[in-house]
Fold these 4 entries.
Entry 1:
Amino acid sequence: MKIYIPEPIAEAGEKYLEFQGYEIFRGSGQTDRESLIRDIAECDAMILRTAKMDEEVLEDGKKLRIVARHGAGYDNLDVKAAKERGIITTYSPDTTALSVAEMTITLLLMLAKKVKRMETELRKDNFSYKFSHKGMDVSGKTLGIIGLGKIGKMVAKKAAIGLDMKVISYIPRPEGKEIPEYIKAVPLEQLLKESDFISLHVPGGAKNQNLIGKKELEQMKESAFLLNLSRGGVVNESEFAEAVRKKQIAGGALDVFAKEPPEITDDIFKLENVILTPHIGSNTEECMERIAMDVAKDVDLVLSGEDPRHPIRQ
């Protein structure tokens, strides 16, 4: 049987599939719609990374039995259309949390210590810049987390126990949920007003589009920073840029964008107090291997007539 992998995954995942007797098919290696439609026609399974799998593409996967999303999100996969065609969809929900949590803490500390600006000025031979521009200690500061799933909880643990931060979280329906003792559940308005750092870890989709916009930004402290390592579109980027430019908030960090890759001419790229990274929260060697093995095993299970471990349920 043939596994369609148009964008490379970690070698361990491909070797696992080949050992199980499957043929790895890369097609043209392109991810435009025409290429996907042409290449997917003879394949039994697909491991999907960044390509967009909509109804039209899925329609041409006549032999497809499974589309395995390489990652924890699946905004680029039309799950409903796949289900209507009897195609199983899976994802990898448990493999990215550690890497994204570490990246979140990295960016939080970079913002607090003004690392980006200090490094830029030093390269200009401006060693004395540091005397008039000081960073802050995060111990005792308040971190507000919106989205207390696996990643959010891991960020909270690292911040509270490792950095001695006060952690609060907005949890829409806290009833029956296990909330660690070092996290205090608060209303969203309170989180926005009290947090020195706000970190977003919510799913994508229409429900959370523009979750943070002009109204929410106006409620934040002037000294506060906003971090988005969840999904593009959760933060209204133009309104965020405006808030930073007007000094309504101190700055922030974005690892995800409404459009990827983003336009580097956008206003947000002109801001000194914002760190921008190209969706690399989970982009580590270890994480890529974990994901590749995770999705490869689900592909093998489905093609062997068994149930996958991580089906997408809607």
Entry 2:
Amino acid sequence: MSLSWNAFGWDKVSNIIYVDQPVGTGFSYSSDFRDIPSNEQGVSNDLYDFLQEFYKAHPGYIENEFYITGESYAGHYIPALASRVHQGNKNREGIQINLNGFSVGNGNTDPAIQYKAYTAFALENKLITKTDYVSINKMIPKCERGIELCATKGNNACVQAYEACRGIYGSIVDINGNINVYDIRKECKGEHCYDFSRMDTFLNLTSVREVLGVQTDFISCSKTVKFAMRTDRMKDLEVGIPELLEDGIKVLIYAGEYDLKCNWLGNSRWVHAMKWSGQKKFVGSPTVPFVVNGSKAGEMQSYGPLTFLKVHDAGHMVPMDQPKAALKMLTRWMQGKLATK
């Protein structure tokens, strides 16, 4: 129940703003439940408003390069926020934010492509047999149709799309018993496979909340917010990224190689399938090693403002599993020197 310095914290090379979002998670709250967003428009508008207020309060940071980073469901949040900031800049809304790039680690971004990659990833990692592969793949057409309807009809069609697709992932998990879906090398322990309960306890100490200036309880995972966002999870958030690439906004998609939940293969496939002016050259670019202190820590492809990086010996949470490599990745990416050894 104490703190220690992280030798590889990203504060070593940047100023960091942590935001508990959507409203209703972490320390973020509202007295009106209608303020809890149900889609990425609501999420990104809230975050954009927050950034405007932040820069009003701290104008000394306005000229700094601004980057947005996150993991997992941030594959939805971050492209949405990056697009909102970019549009705000284009429309001359409020304070101009010096957006240089965004990065997503093991993200959930394009469900149509990522759900289809589950069986290939599982087969490659010997989580299922070839017979299982053929059997589970029979669920894919129904999943695809569901996602198509979600895109056109929204609302309940998106809930139904999730029901149509989750059997693909669920079948793999059922075959493997108590596997940690965030790191297939490990056993799942607890509701979310990791025990972060001490973090929750620490942040809810009266003394900690007084120092932080908050009066509300810290909620790491909110079922209320999950329910409010239930129609969002099967939406495709890749669609807004090409415009950002065309305008020179840097994009880094990275993934630890042992995560099943938002695995590297599904992420690689949607990145390669994305339509933009540099697609052919990106797809045709060589895969090169990502080297940290003389050792290969991953492999990547890059062209123009887009980079995809598979990180070795890491699961869903790359900065936790490979902190040194993650800090090098962030530092070089912001400097435009990811290929540096």
Entry 3:
Amino acid sequence: MEHITETATLKAPAERFTGDVYLNMIEAPTAPAHLAAALVRFTPSARTNWHSHANGQTLYITDGVGLVGTRDGNVVRIHAGQTVKCPAGEEHWHGATDTTLMAHIAMVVGDTDGDGTTWLEPVTDEQYAHALNTSN
């Protein structure tokens, strides 16, 4: 057993996120399991860039209200206690609403080269505003 008593809170890199986002790593992708997990906290209007995961991603929302959007225009409004699964290769983004913080545990299964995430361009303010207005 390994008991980890504290992990540092880090500011997420600006080249992958819009707004203020903070993360605490839970697990790094190491052999044999290759699980990467982190608690990620988004301030209002903060969000990820578009991205995809080679083996998919599972998001468990721990606090607040947020959004998850896909390239085909599908947007879901997410609340604490809900889970969203993004399939392998699906380009998507996630973040807080414009008025509410949102936190989730993000989980991906990586490969021998890391967590299998491909980072893409930022979600534009127009795309974000549209998502706010059309989320279900």
Entry 4:
Amino acid sequence: MTGTTDTARPVRDEHHSVGELVSQATEQLSHLVRQEVALAKEELAAKGRRAGRGGGLLGAAGAVAYAGLLALAGTATAALSLTLSVWAAALIVTGALFLFAGLLAAAGRAQLRRAAPPRPEETLGSVRADVEEIRERAHR
């Protein structure tokens, strides 16, 4: 034994062949893709449930508002018929209702045009981050 010290690095027992590394990477990527798809499905399902409940409540509100509008139209016609003939009063109220419906339709159409398509934003962000991480590691 001489007085020299051994400065060699410790040998790791984890030597993998290229085939094993490719197999592991493929398996991990497949697992990652399955997880991202599951996340997207859950996110869209949750958004769909909320939209369904909201749509149902809006539909019920619309039905009640429609009944109220009919009652208001009858009241307005009766009130105008005190000063005008009944047919003229009914014609004025009908014209006002069609004008109001046209305004609502235009506003609704504008809202639909501005609405974003329903996309799983969180999942898309996660997938982008995953792809960027894979690219960075591939360049190393």
